[in-house]
Amino acid sequence: MSHLLELEGVSKRFGGVQAVDSVDFFADPGEIVGVIGPNGAGKTTLFNIVTGFYSPDAGKIHFDGHNLVGLKPNQITRVGVSRTFQSVRLFSAMTVLENAMVGQHTRTSAGVYGALFNTRKTVREEQKVHASAIESLAFFGERLTPRINSLASELAYADRRRLEIARAMATEPQLLLLDEPAAGMNPAEKEGLIELIGRIRDEKGYAIVLIEHDMPVIKGVSDRVVALDYGKKIAEGSYDEVAADPQVIAAYLGKAGAEEQA
Amino acid sequence: MNLRSALKPGVIGGIVITYLSFIGMVERFQDRNVITGLVGLGVVLMLVAYAITSYTTARKSDSPLPTGIAVGFIAGTFVALMTLGLEGLINAGLDVRSMFVSVTPGLLETLEFGLNPLVGAVVMVLTSTIVGAIAGGLVKLDNHLRSAIVYALGITLLMSLGEPILRVTLGNLKIPTGWLYELGGLTFSGTVVVVAAAFGLRWWWMNRADVRKEAAALIPDGTRRTRSRASLIAIIVVLIALPWIVGPFVSDVLGTVGLYVLLGLGLNIVVGYAGLLDLGYVAFFAVGAYAAAIFTSPASFLVTEEGQQFAEAGFTNLWIALPFVVIIAVIIGAAIGAPVLRLRGDYLAIVTLGFGEIIRTLVISDWLSPYLGGAQGLTRVPAAPPDSFDLRNPQHIYYLILAFGILAAYISYRLVDSRVGRAWAAMREDEDVAEAMGISVVRYKLLAFAMGAGVGSLGGVFFAAKIGSIFPNSFGLQVSINVLAVIILGGIGSIPGVIVGAAALVGLPELLREFGEFRLLIYGAILVAIMIFRPEGLIPNKRRQRELHEGQDPAPADLPEGAPS
């Protein structure tokens, strides 16, 4: 078991739909893996299985020496997997800072007792939570730091996406799963995102897996690309290899389109 | 100004006053003096109705003054014609009262200001037109002046309505009241003083608020903290002195308010902090009350026959029983929480509603009656030592409730900004994401139920101690609804909100007691009005207020096209 994250033959069926069909997958520290595929290919389902929101019907999932199958989402976060959501799901009535502070939950332990008596340990812990949240936000330069006391819902759209990533980073993960981080961004913002994801990898050393429809983004950041269609892995390799794969072209353009291209 | 736009509100105002007259409210209220010998409450009721219809219409109009006059004129004409019509019908020998029981000669006298019917009608139209003109004129006034005028009139009315309590209170403070009150209402000179004082104070306050806003930035943080600490101490001092100022009757009401504050603070943890809509909160109240009674009453099944004699002197001390009661409630809270952990929102509400009913059914059941007393309840809950501290005395138990209320408020205050509070807030907003952030939703739901149960059970304990005996019908659904109403009215998630909400919800019906059968009508109308004009509650949680008024801000500018919703 040499990979940080390793999936073996993972399957998931919803009623008559085979959402994920015996997929093998891995990711290593410092690596950025892009996951592509048409709508309904099972990409987000795969994320949900890894993060414990769905339990797989079959297959094994190992992460850093832990078996993830059967663990609850919060336990999976604790062992070092963090994620963002396809539709931005911030705690919209909490401030930017508080959103990031929530990310520190698993790295702290204060309970009711600590809160009521404001023990020295709690005070120190709150200082740490605060500092670490500020640090995650500072990663985004001047985008989030000046707005730490705004409500998350008051942020501009692209900043909400950034805050989601900051919140996920605040959990101190080893593996970061990003679900369509570029959705709804303009070209300049996408450029910034590519740079940012690279920087996260370089500075934090996370393994990063991202689902993305935007090919320039995939091309810009991925060390390796995995293509899914109808729940099956249809191609894997460098961006150029995968983009040239006839099965991938067929999946995106339909069979006729694939023939035309050829 | 468009006359037609004034017609509808004018007629509606007229219909409202006609309705209030026909159900007997105007006449009944007229018996109550506002300014003795000059204005009765029935007339005030009409004037307020004219003023509200005129003001609300004028505010939306381009030419407020003429609109206000027109609305007032139309409403007054409607009422005057209605009065003349009634006179005509009665003169024609028709028995109007067989249909409208409340259309009495007394009512007609009020509507005609005690004058000849025709002259009365003219006076009515004149009065309504003048009120409409004043209301329309208010729209144009600047904020400070308008606010001061409305405050002056409102406080005068409150001072007059609060006469039974205020006179006693001032009497306890050895302040003479003869110059202020007379025959249940304000004296004329008293009115002048009150109007002037309220106007002046409000005027001064508004101007000072402006100055303070500018100065606020200049005040160092430390000073501000000292000031807020000082005002907190001042509030506590007032709270401690309160029962001796207001006397036993109001103290008793304050005790009930305090019980609701305790229950509200407990439910606020469950609903306000953790976002779990619990409609069966009365269960924890009942657990607290019954557990306290079982531990302390000599009638308890825990007392053996041999122990009876010893028990008469007080079986278990209430103070010793208290922590055990809370522990039991916490366990039951967690036990009730456990099966409903998977449920969300509406489903959770219905299931907790069921739990509340199960508890009520259990305590009334024959099956448990050897232990819980069934329909007879549990009696003889003894007072706790020392003897000089009498729990049956409303002025004494008030302090006990106050102390634990402060404790509960402190617990809430410490929790909300802690790691636990953040976890609750995250869970309230989005359970899935909270889970993805590493928060064990199961654990924090259980914790919220347990904490809510613990605080709520304190309410039960003091309820049992205050009344001295408990009966199953004290623990119906109504209690759950009232407590929920307390926190919604005060502002969900806000500690001062719970306190003000409890005071309003429990205190108002007591203050409105003299309105007899109209009490609940007025009470309901006030609650509806508060919720329409302040949906975020009386003292909202700042964050929620921002959220609710978010729609009024311009949308974030750089929302790109094609952003997924």
Any overview of this molecule?
The complex is a heterodimer of chains A (262) and B (565). The longest helix of chain A is centred in the middle third of the chain and has 19 residues, at 120-138. With 262 residues, chain A is α/β, with parallel strands linked by helices. Chain A has helices spanning 43-50, 73-79, 96-103, 112-117, 120-138, 157-170, 187-204, 215-221, 239-244, 246-261, and strands at residues 5-14, 17-27, 32-36, 58-63, 66-67, 81-83, 175-179, 207-211, 224-229, 232-237. Helices cover 42% and strands 23% of the residues of chain A. Chain B has 565 residues and is mainly α. In chain B, helix 10 packs antiparallel against helix 20 (477-490). The two termini of chain B are 44 Å apart. Chain A binds chain B through residues 51, 53, 72-74, 77-78, 82-83, 85-87, 89-94, 98, 101-103, 105-106, 108, 110-112, 114-116, 118, 122, 125-126, 129, 151, 153-158, 167, 171, 183-186, 189, and chain B through 411, 414-415, 418-423, 425-426, 429-430, 432-441, 447, 451, 543-544, 546-547, 550, 553, 556-560, 562-565.
- Per DSSP E runs of 2 or more residues, the count of β-strands of chain A stands at 10
Which protein chains are joined by the largest interface, and how many residues does each one contribute?
A-B, 50 and 40 residues
Oligomer: heterodimer
Distance between the termini of chain B: 44 Å
> What characteristic shape of chain B results from the CA principal axes?
globular
Percent in strands of chain A: 15-25%
Task: Pick out the low-confidence regions of chain A.
Answer: none
The span between the termini of chain A is: 40 Å
Helix content of chain A: 40-55%
